[in-house]
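Sequence in, structure out. First:
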Amino acid sequence: MSIKDTAEEWEVRATDTPFTGNKTSVRTDDVVMPDGSVARRDYQVHPGSVAVLALDGQDRVLVLRQYRHPVRQKLWEIPAGLLDVPGENPLHAAQRELYEEAHVKAEDWRVLTDVYTTPGGCDEAVRIFLARDLSEVEGDRFVVEHEEADMELARVPVDELVRGVLAGELHNNCLVVGVLSLVAARHGDGLEALRPAQAPWPARPFED
């Protein structure tokens, strides 16, 4: 038996969008269940995101500490951001986020993993990249605002992040998935066996 997620779409009898925000919206679908009944499902429609696990030569991960209002916490995270344009190349978006949030560039990019953050209530898909061979970017820094104005930046050893994840001290989805995927890849076929940075992404198709 092959353990692999597969595409499938059940019949939708009716759909409505009761809320439209700046970047996301809420959709209500009446979905036909396998027994023929119809159930209403509400979910957030999301453009998709990218995240970057940036690993330096001392085996440290570049992390940011930022206030997240919905959970009322300051979370340690890896650089991440929205796909601003439908069909946007996720690698280009990831490179932009690494520059804007950390003023860093990377020479080696690979796909670490792809995830749906909360598939029971949101269609957000995130591609998490591994970025290596880091260097500081010359020139002016990106002007930050809102929550990012209070953002902290650090480089933390991989082992310390793993300890924090397993101790329940670190909670950001992309950081947790990214760090544990890095460790799993190292103990598996190795980082060089990871997918190339331009690997297809069916959840958010893009052009090179």
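Second:
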Amino acid sequence: MIPAPLEYPPYTAQRLCPGLWHIQDATADHPPGTQPDGSFHSPSSVYVVETPSQVLVVDLGPPYPGQALRALVDRIAGGRAIQVAITHNHFDHIGALRQFEDCLHHLPQRDPIQTAAPSRLLTGGESIALPPYHFQVLAVPGHTRGSLAFYEPEQGWLFTGDAFGSSYVWLLFLPDAVEVYRDTLRRTLALLGEREDLLLLPGHRYQQQILPVPGIDPRSPRNPRLGLPYLRDMLTLSEQILAGTAASRPFQACGREDLAAYTYGRAEIDALLPGRPPVEL
């Protein structure tokens, strides 16, 4: 049984299983989705992996004033050393970077990030050793050029940031994003093999709609568990988009209307219409 969440405003932390915590910038008073004033709250996911001697924090959420995230992670760490791994350089995943500048940072080399912390730049193919866990670093471009994922094969954990989406993926920031993403999916699925117990731990877990989220388009898929079937549907959908056969509807984001939401099975890809310039974030 998953224990009750721990609120530490603006965050909520919950232990998903032994050794693994999920943190998001949402609380009972400020939940994900449409708010009473009509605004939409889109929290980001932070993960904390515990070992006997240290913890690994995967992504650091959006920027907030103060030191609340560090205080919450310190509470979980209980004096153990802290390392940080970043999946990509978007603001809603590196917002608390300065709170952790005394910790070793594992960073994507192809998504430049400015930090004063001791850093290790990664391109994929490396590993992060936190015994008893050993994370394989995967290059997973598409959402961004330098996106990384962190795979723990013994546990079947795959920390993905926004690389594979959190029920749907934005492929808006590269001119050739869908083609790059298709190739990423092919490589990743070949690496994972038949790992049916795979668990994707994405960058915006609320989008899975483990509990219904008001304001998410009802046509978007609901995926309480993300695993191999989801990735397989994403590959099929990316191939359909490139072939011009994918089902779609109009989509708006980042002030742009020249976008489309494509769907197949468990998968949704929100992408540029053909020939349109990428979104600048």
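Remark: The mean pLDDT is 96.
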